[in-house]
Amino acid sequence: MRRAIQTSLALLLTMFVGVGCSGVAEQQASTSQEATAQEQPVKQEEQKTITLGITQIVEHPALDSVRKGIVDALADKGFKDGENLNVDLQNAQGDMNNAISIAQKFTADQKDMIVAIATPTAQAAAKATKDIPIVFATVTDPVAAGLVEALDKPGDNITGTSDQLPMAMQVDLIKKFIPGVKKIGVIYSSSEVNSEVQVKDIEASAKERNIGVEKVGITKASEVQSGAEALAGKVDAILIPVDNTVVSAMEGVVTTALKAKLPVFASDTDSVKRGAVATYGIDYYKMGYQTGEMAARILKGEATTANPVEVTKDADLTINLDSAKAFGLQVSDELKKSAKEVIGE
């Protein structure tokens, strides 16, 4: 009888322990689920996909290099397209109306940031929104373009990088190739503030050197070649500013100028690779990368659009020996040695 009672008590004790353990396990599981539920929003926040709108005014090698530099810099700083970054790339094809529509669409989509490549797209984005952060690239004079109040204090929701270089460098370069130059021809887009600023700089620099300037204003890429034809017989050389519309039709300028034996000089390195004689130019991939780094800092909260506009300080000499020969120009050994890149040697 005693053994039976002991056995029954042991069984009851085992049942109570089992129930207790089960209750503890259920409580632990419940606590674990609650903790997981509490952690989930944090993980979702960490994995939020940034929506980035990139608007580019037109396709040409310099601006394409800028775009690649931007995307590469963002990736290197942890923002990778297709992972935690969704890049919406739009090209205005040289049409300001398209640029305005793109900027309005980005605003309606509530992008986390807009990156504008070149002055017209930056202007369109600035008019479309005062809330979304805007970072521009390759805007020659952001103040004259009405984008910022001052380079050191941009104001509003916009900042970026400027490719402003003194045009005196290009005028002096032409003199090194053509010591007796009397008049320089300039083809530029009359609708781009960026270009008008450069033309004024060219005129001032040329005047200081007793050189005349013949200007041809165009409104679209299809007019560029006829602009070059209009300069034939009137000038000693053509200088192309950093003008997106003209640069997009560089081959047409070079073809026309070759027929007239009228040397073409550029303000960007890619145009030299496409047939211009020489330039003191900017590495536009590096400028794009610099812009991408600015964008990444803002996205991370390490900087804001109140940070100063960054102006490039570097310009390297690039010479195309094949083009110089085709235009009947001699290239001194001194010039060759001072060039960062010599094409055709």
UniProtKB/TrEMBL annotation:
SUPFAM superfamilies: Periplasmic binding protein-like I. Residues 1-19 form the signal peptide. Pfam families: ABC_sub_bind. Keywords: Signal. The keyword Transport does not apply. It comes from the Bacteria. The keyword Oxidoreductase does not apply. PANTHER family: ABC TRANSPORTER, SUBSTRATE-BINDING LIPOPROTEIN (PTHR35271:SF1), ABC TRANSPORTER, SUBSTRATE-BINDING LIPOPROTEIN-RELATED (PTHR35271). This is ABC transport system substrate-binding protein. It comes from Ammoniphilus resinae.
